[in-house]
Design goal:
- The chain is mainly alpha-helical.
- 62% of the residues lie in helices and 0% in strands.
- It contains 27 helices and no strands.
- Helix 12 (241-252) packs antiparallel against helix 13 (258-274), helix 19 (370-380) packs parallel to helix 21 and helix 20 (383-396) packs antiparallel against helix 21.
- It is globular, with a radius of gyration of 24 Å.
- The relative contact order is 0.09.
């Protein structure tokens, strides 16, 4: 059941905004950690049998416990109460319970259109429904509901501000998420529920100092499962795999809802996949789906693990099922590349076309898909278009993932000198990188190879395969072939690198990351910091900041 456009609106209010209304204006302008103990691999595997829940993951549903118009708690039983209880604790609600919560609050705002709390709950629930089901048509509904809540009570409406921050994060609009989240924290600094969206926003904007500060405050306010689940993501982004796994285990030990447990199992599967543990990742993903068939991302993750295990027919079926249930653009890219690796070029093109269509649909609902579209165009379309789109994205949101994608697009477009600067930004800890990513290491290695930097190229291509030998059905074999072409390093190694860097004659750039052990000679060959590189004008039709 949906709210009709002609629903009652209180006298004197502006009513819900249109689908195209801006959500980037905080109400004030409108109206005036420490890591846990490390766990052994056996302890991490024990997640499979644990009765556990999940900390808040990306696109968090943040809302107050459901209250009636007079502020009394709702009954302690039933799907609506279960959904409100789950999200109040910072864990995902089961999708059937979430649907019941939406239906309940649609009825409530019809009956009591001045109930700002119910409007805020409804808007946040729409956001979560859209994110969990890959149905971005819910996002304009969410914005209308949340802005209606603000219209009804503009002063001190922290729940609506948090909901708008979460909505912006779900759309991939991190700058707007930051503005709403910071407005919520300013009003209620001791309230923990704004910090997950803020951490995601700061991460997307490449503001690592702000991430650390927000995480510290979150863990001080909410040291339990919700905080630990968020901490795991931050530790993962820092390349601290053991800390990330320990944080997931700690979060799992503290909650008991099936949907929460499934989300944590899927997160554990992602961590296992990124370190190349095929069997463990598949075990986690399957356990997640047994616990909750709607576990976000678990089905596509299972397909990824099956590809790595060589079970290609199962992988194809699993990916197709995942896309049928949740048409996520990145999963369409993964399936297309799997088809391409099998020589099925026509089937791959179908998936790439599907991705472009999904991006068009999501863009119409305010979603920023510039990153995945740039990766598609760089490898399977127009690299120059990828560069233009990703330059615009870098100006909006200069995060690590964008730096990697833009560097790769520049490489594919033949601009290797500039490409290396962005690759350094994505991989060097001194520049804010640190994710132990096989893909990022591969991108950097191939860029260095084409620049004639044989030593660094060899090192980073080897690192990519050491991190995860199965990271891509297309690119892992390309890394192996590139290493064969480079051959063995000459006796003495370092003189070869010194000769290469001497030819470049360029200075600037950060040194290699601690993970890769990049040399000082490699540092001297890097271009200057890409954050000060001139950016091309935005391309008409590309997503813009909202």
């Amino acid at each position: 059941m949906e709210i009709e456009e002609g629903r009652p609106v209180p006298a004197g209010s502006e009513g819900p905004v249109s689908a195209g209304a801006r959500s980037d204006e905080p109400v004030g302008e409108r109206s005036r950690g420490a890591s846990g103990p490390r766990r052994s691999p056996l302890a991490r595997r024990s997640l499979i049998g644990a009765v556990a829940g999940c900390a808040v993951l990306g696109g968090v549903l943040v809302l107050l416990p459901s209250l009636d118009g007079g502020g009394a708690p709702r009954p302690a039983a039933g799907p609506v109460a279960r959904a409100a209880s789950a999200v109040g604790a910072g864990t995902p609600a089961a999708l059937p319970d979430l649907a019941a919560l939406i239906d309940d609050h649609e009825s409530r705002v019809r009956a009591r259109p001045r109930d700002d709390v119910s409007w805020a709950v409804l808007g946040a629930a729409y956001t979560e429904r859209g994110r969990r089901t890959a149905a971005p048509a819910y996002y304009p509904k969410a914005e209308k509901a949340l802005r209606t809540s603000l219209d009804l009570r503009s002063g001190g409406n922290v729940a609506a501000l948090e909901g708008l921050a979460s909505l912006a994060g779900a759309r991939g609009d991190f700058r707007t998420a930051k503005r709403w989240g910071e407005a919520a924290v300013k009003l209620a600094p001791k309230r923990w529920t704004a910090y997950p969206a803020l951490i995601d926003a700061y991460t997307g904007l490449g503001d690592h100092k702000a991430v650390d500060g927000a995480l510290g405050k979150l863990l001080a306010l909410r040291p339990g499962p919700a905080g630990r689940g968020i901490a795991a993501r931050v530790y993962r982004d820092r390349g601290q795999r053991e800390d990330a796994a320990a944080a997931v285990s700690d979060a799992a030990a503290g909650t008991a809802t099936p949907s929460g447990r499934a989300a944590l199992l899927a997160q554990a599967g992602d961590l296992a996949w990124e370190r190349g543990d095929r069997e463990e990742s598949l075990e986690h993903y399957r356990a997640a789906l047994r616990t909750d068939a709607d576990a976000d991302g678990a089905l596509a993750g299972q397909g990824r693990a099956l590809v790595a295990l060589g079970r290609t027919s199962e992988a194809l079926s699993t990916y197709r099922e995942a896309l049928a249930e949740r048409p996520v653009p990145r999963h369409a890219l993964e399936l297309g590349e799997l088809y391409e690796s099998l020589g099925l070029v026509g089937a791959a093109r179908v998936q790439y076309d599907l991705l472009r269509e999904l991006v068009r649909r999501e863009s119409a609902e305010g979603v920023d898909d510039a990153l995945v579209l740039g990766l598609l165009e760089a490898d399977h379309g127009d690299p120059r278009a990828a560069v233009r789109g990703l330059r615009a994205e870098w100006r909006r949101q200069p995060g690590i993932a964008v730096a990697d994608a833009l560097g790769w697009a520049l490489h594919r477009a033949g601009e290797d000198r500039e490409a290396l600067g962005f690759a350094l930004r994505a991989t060097d800890k001194e520049r804010g990188g640190g994710v132990r990513s096989a893909l990022y290491a591969y991108h950097r290695g191939q860029i260095e190879r084409d620049l004639g930097l044989a030593g660094p190229a060899r090192r980073h291509l080897t690192e990519a395969l050491r991190i995860n030998p199965y990271f891509s059905p297309l690119l892992a074999p390309a890394a192996q072939e590139a290493l064969r072409t480079l051959g063995e390093p000459p006796a003495g190694g370092p003189p070869e690198e010194s000769g290469e860097s001497g030819e470049s004659g360029e200075s600037g750039g950060a040194g290699g990351s601690g993970e890769s052990g990049a040399s000082g000679d490699e540092e001297r060959s890097a271009p200057s910091d890409p954050s000060v590189a001139p950016a091309a004008p935005a391309v008409p039709g590309q997503p813009t900041a909202r």
